[in-house]
Amino acid sequence: METDISVLEQRIGYTFRDKALLHEALSHSSYANEKKKQRRSNERLEFLGDSVLSVVVSQHLFQHFTDLPEGELTRLRAALVCEKSLHGFAKQIGLGDFLLLGKGEEHTGGRERPSILADAFEAVIAAVYLDGGLEAARTHILHFIPATLPQNSAVLFGDYKTALQEVIQKNPEEKVEYLLTDASGPDHNKSFVIEVCLNSNVIGRGTGKSKKEAEQMAAKEALSLMGYET
Length: 230
Hints:
This protein is mostly helical. The protein has 11 helices and 3 strands, in the order ααααααααααβββα. A 3-stranded antiparallel sheet has the order 1-2-3. Strand 1 and strand 2 form a beta hairpin. The chain is globular and about 65 Å long. The chain starts with a helix and ends in a 5-residue tail after the last helix.
């Protein structure tokens, strides 16, 4: 556990005037319950941070993807603010090192739990917002949003098979198949080669340590060859 919150302030590029806000944002309910009235949990801040995050990301997508319809904007936003995404953002700044957890959560791996890290990330957003206003929160949030975003939300998290399927579905008569063409190596370190075919024509090839990984790599190559950003 890291106790010097100035290190966290350096990582997020924001210095709090009211340090108590940051302490509250880092206080999990398990810790607050142990301290009883001495400490508030970050749950209320998480509630506010969720809304601030949604507003900032929505405006960013609205301004930068002027040709996308409402449905695609909604899907992109959902991909950026989901637990998996926020967990990744939290890990970028080592947020788990600064969390204040109860003994039970501490001993059961709470610092690495995606839901706890995602909630704390939203709570920190709210703390920045309350301490420095919307522009400070916007600057903090956009630091984690990639400069360029693929228009297909599935690509954001490496789900290339889903992204490829969504592209192909625009033409219902088309059929995609994944074929295993090679498997080599000992059982503990196998390598698989998968080809993805569109109407029997090979459109991508991928290699991985599992069939699923090889399929994703084959789909990624197919998307790239079709001109989609991956």
